[in-house]
Amino acid sequence: FIWGLEYIYDNLPQKKWYVIVDDDTYLVKSSLRLLLAHWDSNVPQYIGNAVGDFKGRFAHGGSAVVISHEAAKQLLSRRDVVAAAQEHSLDETWGDKLVATAFQKIGVYLDERYSHFFNGERPNISKMMADRFCSPLVSFHGVADPAEMKRIGRAFANERSPVFWGQLWEIYGAPSVEEFRRLPIRTGRDYVGRIDERAKMVHAVESAETCLKECEDMGKKCLAWAWVEHTLECKLSPWMILGERVEGHYSGINTGEVEKLHESC
């Protein structure tokens, strides 16, 4: 990443913004343009999807990293910092972390206020959460399959306006809130996906109906639920995903809370 930043700055020194992405990243350009129009390229800014722990936070390269002209100028004028970063890049696994370390040495830090615009997942497993439902969506990551990259390109080909997180549901033709009201339990689907510490797992749940009620009782803390038949586990998450077919799963969304989110946009 550090070599790439130097290359694009040297060859395109007049540009206001520089964007670093992985080769399996898809950029939603209309959303990115909206954000760039509100940011000042003359201010040293380093922006992206914040990852890492207390030892060091950095912008995830796969989610796209946005660097202002002034930030690039200040960094690349410090040849000592750049040379040290280039040397470390020879044995550093995380090139995106190395960029953050270099910027920290010149007093430019990751602005985490904008993390929710950037996304490190493929469309089907992107987590739509309340805190970003009405926010522009800039990127997808992990799209290693060329056929899937083409499908994403077709899905967003005609988008001239910014795309918001909550619009993913409509763009990909997922069931509407009204359709979920008519058929709240979907067989062979999972709208929760991979869980982490933000989700809740309830054991020994005897039915999908009981799992659905658990989610509804949690209010805004649960947007989607999934019941696993063979383990009797009930997954409850503060997000929902487009989902994929999973045998033995029964799943749905919290229609009341999702409807409120749509109305808030």
Automatic annotation (TrEMBL):
Q: How does it sit in the membrane?
A: Single-pass type II membrane protein
Q: What is its EC number?
A: 2.4.1.122
Indicate the segments forming the Fringe-like glycosyltransferase domain, all copies.
14-162
Q: Output the Pfam families linked to this UniProt entry.
A: Fringe
**Pathway involvement?**
Protein modification; protein glycosylation
Q: Which GO terms describe its cellular component?
A: membrane
Q: Which UniProt keywords apply?
A: Glycosyltransferase, Membrane, Nucleotide-binding, Signal-anchor, Transferase, Transmembrane, Transmembrane helix
Gene3D superfamilies in alphabetical order:
3.90.550.50
Its predominant location is membrane
Give yes or no: UniProt keyword Phosphoprotein: no
GO molecular function terms here? glycoprotein-N-acetylgalactosamine 3-beta-galactosyltransferase activity; nucleotide binding
Carries keyword NADP?
A: no
Family annotation (InterPro entries): C1GALT1/C1GALT1_chp1, Fringe-like_glycosylTrfase
**Compartment(s):** Membrane
Recorded hits in PANTHER family, A to Z, give:
APPLE DOMAIN-CONTAINING PROTEIN (PTHR23033:SF40), BETA1,3-GALACTOSYLTRANSFERASE (PTHR23033)
Family membership: Belongs to the glycosyltransferase 31 family. Beta3-Gal-T subfamily.
Full protein name: N-acetylgalactosaminide beta-1,3-galactosyltransferase
Organism, as annotated: Colletotrichum orchidophilum
